[in-house]
UniProtKB/TrEMBL annotation:
Residues 188-296 form the Fe2OG dioxygenase domain. GO terms for molecular function: metal ion binding; oxidoreductase activity. Keywords: Iron, Metal-binding, Oxidoreductase. This is Fe2OG dioxygenase domain-containing protein.
């Protein structure tokens, strides 16, 4: 007989009472998308963040997801992390081969340069399409397939797709330029993620500079992070300061990741962010997160988009234009993401020394954006 896997209600933790150095992100109310004037306003706001604030982060609101639906996703995450470890581990990621779909346990790696263990576990759920119909999924996920698959598809169709259109319009490209390269129905490493950070002792956190996730950029093209009240997520602003993301019920914090940045020569900025130990009134909480990670379709060549805007702004070199017309020699998005997952997740430690570079073919990023010049890991 099938086990039923009830989902107990999730109680949203109270926001911190500490006054943090809050980031003010440009808001994109997605209900504006459906009228020409509204769409033009959204394009303007997309460009404002990129060109004026030098930031690839936005706060996306009015997405069509109800508060109840979002909280139900956090509740599923909560229920998943209450399952016995053996059951959670039943479909683990294949990091040695660059695989990032499935479960990754906490406490299996040390934080580089310390004896402290990594405190974050995650479950990346693949798309609900025919290509993934044979992919093994946890029983609890299968038991709630109706609402999880609906949520998964809407993250792409109702949110990511619209943002890809806005990006294409901002770059003066054909409106479906990025949509076509991220087609939900084709194979990609897109995933809906339930993640969980376990509280750590003050002593252990001190050894890791109070970081739960090192300063990094994301690997794919776009990350949709459902707003949560447990603080810790910080974005690096152009002036070098890290500022805290303010909780905002129902909103989605969206950031550009590496492959979109490569395709636009950094105009769509893959922005550095990190997760710190939460403020004192929240540091004891098990921090559950829900996010949707978009990647281009696996077979998409990572070449620079032929954007008139980028051309005018002088972002495109003759080599970029030549490479773009020779797509068959380009690294594909699938290859890039797999190589990066392997580099970050297959080792026995988490986090390289600040300044370490990751390179695959012609594509290169820093692995850890801590300051390099003080010569100490305490400089992150
Ligand atoms: O947990 C968070 O708030 C951010 C997570 C994150 O940056 C990531 O998983 O890449
Ligand atoms: Fe991230």
């Amino acid at each position: 007989m099938a086990i039923s896997y009830p989902i107990p209600k999730w109680d949203r933790p109270a926001p911190t009472t500490h006054e943090l150095n809050w980031a003010e992100l440009t808001e994109l109310p997605l209900d504006l998308f459906d009228t020409p004037d509204g769409k033009a306003e959204l394009v303007k706001r997309v460009k404002h963040a990129l060109e004026v604030e030098d930031l690839g982060f936005w706060s996306v609101t009015n997405t069509g997801f109800s508060e109840e639906e979002i909280e139900h996703q956090f509740a599923i995450g909560q229920a998943f992390y209450k399952l016995p470890l053996e059951e959670r581990k039943s479909n683990s990621i294949d990091a040695a081969n660059g695989g990032y779909l499935g479960y990754r346990a906490a406490y299996e790696r040390t934080i580089n340069g310390t004896d402290v263990l990594d405190n974050m576990e995650l479950l990346n759920i693949p798309k609900y399409t025919k290509n993934f119909s044979e992919t093994p999924r946890h029983e609890i996920i299968k038991a709630h397939e109706a609402e999880i698959s609906d949520f998964h598809r809407r993250c792409w169709y109702d949110v990511a797709r619209k943002l890809f259109v806005l990006f294409a319009l901002a770059l003066e490209l054909e409106e479906n330029y990025f949509v076509d390269r991220h087609d939900y129905e084709k194979v990609s490493q897109d995933h809906l993620r339930y993640m969980m950070y376990h509280p750590r002792s003050v002593e252990d956190d001190e050894k890791c500079n109070n970081l739960w996730s090192w300063a990094h950029t994301d690997y794919g093209s776009l990350t949709l992070l459902f707003s949560q009240t447990v603080s810790g997520l910080q974005v690096k602003f152009a002036d070098g300061t890290y500022r805290d993301i303010r909780p905002k019920k129902g909103s989605i914090v969206v950031n550009v990741a590496d492959t979109l940045s490569f395709m636009t020569k950094g105009y769509l900025r893959s922005t550095i962010h990190r997760v710190t130990r939460p403020p004192p009134d929240q540091a004891h909480i098990h921090r559950i997160g829900v996010l949707y990670g978009c990647r281009p379709n696996d077979d998409v060549p990572v070449v620079v988009a032929p954007s008139p805007l980028l051309q005018r702004l002088g972002y495109l070199t003759p080599e970029d234009i030549a490479a773009a017309s020779n797509e068959k020699d380009a690294v594909t998005a699938g290859e890039y993401v797999a190589a990066r997952v392997k580099a970050v997740h297959a080792g026995a430690t988490y986090g390289n020394a600040p300044g370490t570079k990751f390179k695959h073919g012609n594509l290169e990023v820093l692995e850890n954006f801590g300051e390099v010049n003080s010569g100490s890991k305490a400089s992150i």
